[in-house]
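Need diguanylate cyclase's 3D structure for a figure. Predict it.
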Amino acid sequence: MKFILLILFFLSPFAFANTDQQIDIELSQLEKTMKTSPDEGEVLFSALHDKSSILNNDQLARLWMIDAQRQIMIGNFETALIRLDDVQKVATDRILLTQSYMYKVTSYIGLENYTSAFIELRKNLERVETYQDLELKLESYLRILNVYLDMDAYKESKRISEKLLDLNKQQSPKSHCYGLVGLGYSNLNLRLYQEATSTFDEAYAYCQTHEFSLVGAMALKGLAEINLEMSEYSKAKEQLETALIVYQRFNFSYELSRTNALLAIVHYHIKEFETATHYAELVNALPNDSIYMLPKRKVSEILSMLANRQGRYKEAYQYQVLAHALDMQIINEKKVKENAYQMVKFDSAEKTRELNQLVQDHEMIAKQRSMLNNEKSSSFMFSTVLVGTVAFLSLMLSAAWMQRNQFRKQAQIDALTGLYNRGAGIEKAENEFIQVQAQQGSISVIVIDLDWFKKINDSYGHATGDWALKKVADTITEHKRASDIVCRLGGEEFAIFMPFTDIDFAYECAQSLCTAFANINTRYSGHQFTITGSFGVSDLTNDDLSLDPILNRADNALYKAKSEGRNRVVKS
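Structure prediction for diguanylate cyclase:
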C-alpha cells in the first residue's frame, strides 16, 4: 500500500504537468482556429469552457481573452468588457494584461464611448512606462499608436511614434517600420507635409528592404495623399497603383477602399472619367459600415461631378446630398472624439495641477514657519505674498472650473441631433418638476417614436436615417417654446417636457408636430419617403412624486397610438 501511494505521489505532478501542457496546446489551437474557421472554433471553445474548473489562472485568462475577442467580432461590446474584467482579475502575464486593456479600448470605441476609451489608453500607457522588457514595451507602444491614429488623436500618435523610434533605435525592424509609418500619418494629418514626405520616403525604403511590403504600401499611399494635396496627380497615380497591387495581394479591404477612392479622385483630375467612374463605383458598392464612411464620402463627390458632366443633374444632386450627409457624420464623430480626448486630457492636467498645488502649499507652510521663527518682522510681507498667491491660485482654479463646465455642457448634447441626451434632458426636467411641485403647477410630457424608422435605414441607408433624425429634431425645435425641454431618449425616440403646461395644450402641440412630421419634404435627402410619428401625452397627477410615473403613462399612450395604426396622438 505504501509503495502504491509512493508511486502516486511521484506520478501525480507529471499527470498535472501533462494536463497543463495539453490544455496549453488546446488553447493555442483554439486561438489559431478562431482566426481561420470561427465555426470550428466555437466547438473547441465549448469543449475548453467545460474544463474551466481545472484551468490555472493564466489559462483561464487566455480562455476569457478568446471569448472577449469572439464577443467583439460579433459586436457584443458590453459582454466583451465583462470578459476583459475577468481577464484582468486572474492574469499574471503582462502580454495578456496589455492585450486586455487594448481590447477594452476597442470595445469602448465600438460603444462610441470615446471618453472611456481614452481613459483606458491612458491607464495602459502608465503601465507600459514601468515595463523593463523592451520587446513587450515596443509591442505595447505599437498597439497604443494604432489606437491613437484610429481615434484621430494625431498629436498623441506623433508623440508615441517618436518615443517608439527613440526607444527602439532600429533594433526591431518591425517596430522601426511601423513607427515611421505612424509618424508619417501623424504629420500628414497635422498638415506637416514636408516632415511627412521625408518620413514616408524613409519608411518606404526601410520597409521594402526589410520585407514589410504591406506597411511599405501604407507609406507609399501616404506619399500619394501628399502629392494629391499638391496637385501632383501623375506621381500620386503611380504611387497609388503600386500600393493597390500590394493591398490586393493581401486582400486588405480597409486600405483597398481608401486607395480606390483616391484613384477615383486622381483619374477625375487627369480627365480619365471612365476609369474614375470604375474606381468610384467599387467604393460605392461597399457596405454602409463606419470604416468605409470616409472613402464613400470622397467618391460621392466624384460621382456627383461625373453625373453633372453628363447632364444627369438629378443624380448629381442626390450624390451631393449623400456626400453632405456623410460629411456631417464624419464631422460629428470627430467632434465626439475630440471632446472625449479633451475631457480626459483636461482631467489629467487638473490632477497634476492639484498635486503641484499641494506641494506648493506644503512648501509655503514650511517657509511660513521658518519665517515666523527666524524673522517675525517679515510676517507682514509674507502675508502679502500669501494673499497674492491665494488670489492667483483662485483665479487659476476659477478658469479651470469654467473650462470643465464647458466640457460637461458638451457632454450633455446628443452629437447627431443637437438636442439634450437622455441623461441631461431628464435631469433638467426633474429640476423643473421640483419647481412645478413647489408652486402647485402642472407639467406635461410628450413622448415621440418615429414610425417604421428601421425601414428607412434598411431601404435608403443609415446616412438617410440620420438625415431624418436631424430633420425631426429641427422640426421639434421650431415648434417648442423656450421653457420646454427636448431630449433624444435614444434611437428614434424623443421626449418633450413642458413645465407649467396642462395636458390639453400639450395634446394640441403634439397634434401640430404630428402634422409637421408628415409634411417634411424628404427629397432633400436624395430619396422620397414619408416621415410620421406616434405620440403619447401625459401630465402630472396628485399621486406623482417624480417624473417616472408621468413618463410611464406617456409611454403607455405611445404604445396605444402604435397599436391603433400609428401617425396619431393619444393622451393618458
